[in-house]
Amino acid sequence: MNKILTAVCLGLLVLTACHGRKIEDVSMPAAGKTDAQLKTAILAGCEDRGWICAEASQGLIEGSLQKGKYLSEVQIPYGNNGYKIVYKNSENLGYNAKKQQIHKAYSKWVIYLNKSIRAALSDPQKYSK
């Protein structure tokens, strides 16, 4: 009986640990920054964190991050003194469109990307080439 109870508890623990996180787009104000400053900071932040990013159109940068078998893609619209990091696509991250959930690694990567963009906005000299 104890072995069955232990197995059930272990199974529930594994299921809980693998449960995805809700996808939350990042929306950041950047008062007083021009579109050119935002674009430069976003591209610098992407490079700092290993994202491959490029301007897809005026005011829109698209980025991807490959970590082993995992792929994450985002869109980063910018302008009007701010930017957003928006989920676009992923591979092998357990994305659930109905529940709007994904592997917790995606959230971590986006948080780090946002931190690097914010750092590039606050200290552009450090991130300029």
Task: Write up this protein.
This protein has 4 helices and 7 strands. It has helices at 2-18, 35-49, 104-122, 124-127; strands at residues 21-22, 26-29, 52-57, 60-67, 70-79, 82-91, 101-102. Helices cover 43% and strands 33% of the residues. The strands form 2 sheets. It has a 5-stranded antiparallel sheet, covered by helices on one side. Strands 1-7 form a two-stranded antiparallel ribbon. By secondary structure, the chain is α+β, with helices and mostly antiparallel strands. The protein has one domain (20-127): Kinase associated domain 1, KA1 (TATA-Binding Protein), CATH 3.30.310.80. The N and C termini lie far apart (65 Å).
Question: Summarize this, please?
Answer:
It is built from 4 helices and 7 strands.
Write the layout of secondary structure elements.
Blueprint: H1 2-18, E1 21-22, E2 26-29, H2 35-49, E3 52-57, E4 60-67, E5 70-79, E6 82-91, E7 101-102, H3 104-122, H4 124-127
Antiparallel strand pairs: 1-7, 2-6, 3-4, 4-5, 5-6
Helix pairs in contact: 2-3
**Globular, elongated, flat, extended or rod-shaped: what is the shape?**
globular
Distance between the termini: 65 Å
Please state the structural category. alpha+beta
CATH topology: TATA-Binding Protein
The low-confidence runs, each spanning 5 or more residues with pLDDT under 50, are 1-17
- Counting DSSP E segments of at least 2 residues, the number of strands comes to 7
